[in-house]
Specification:
Elements lengths: L1 H4 L21 H7 L2 E2 L2 E4 L11 H12 L6 E3 L6 H5 L7 E6 L2 H11 L7 E6 L13 H7 L6 E7 L3 H8 L12 H18 L4
Parallel strand pairs: 2-3, 4-5, 5-6
Antiparallel strand pairs: 1-2
Length: 203
Amino acid sequence: MDVLVGVEHETGARWQDLRLDESLPDSRSLASRLPVWDGVRILSCGVGGGSLPDLRDIAEVSGGLALAGHGPVVVDCGRSYEMCGLMDGVALCRVVVCELTVPGISRAKRLLSHIRSRPLCLVGVRPHMARSGRVAVDMNDAARYLEVEDDVAVAGPMPSSRRLCENMLSGLGFSAVDRSVRAVVRSVASFIHEIHECGGEGA
């Protein structure tokens, strides 16, 4: 994640710096030691390697950071479906990003089966390799296949941004929100902002 957002050279704590086998860190102290990207704190594995901690430790540390009062924190939780269930008691809201392809919505269906908490927002993203609309699954068809309930917010489809893909692949990180995806990003940001305004603290 460090490379993804371009903070690999920034100083600060990473997962491998935490001694979770001894005790959980003080959340306020940890938040103040994390690298910052565009005003947002990042807790990742870093580029030096090392494995992620136990999933329950990740959930507890994430929950503590959510309540630390330092604003939003982006946490690298790996790719475990089990983590979604562990975060049910921590997350104030959920945003699930789904690639609008047959494999993409299949993965999303499995992911959603582990999420019980609400509010939830589903974001559909067109595949970046598709040269035509024939490859992508229609947003409405995807929502029906995923059996999206009435209390789930749906945003998209978000078009593929060639410039954003090139920046990520070349290690430049996110320079700005591309105009082509700005409307969907603004919709998701408004969803999160409204939940935080109504619900108070949370991840």
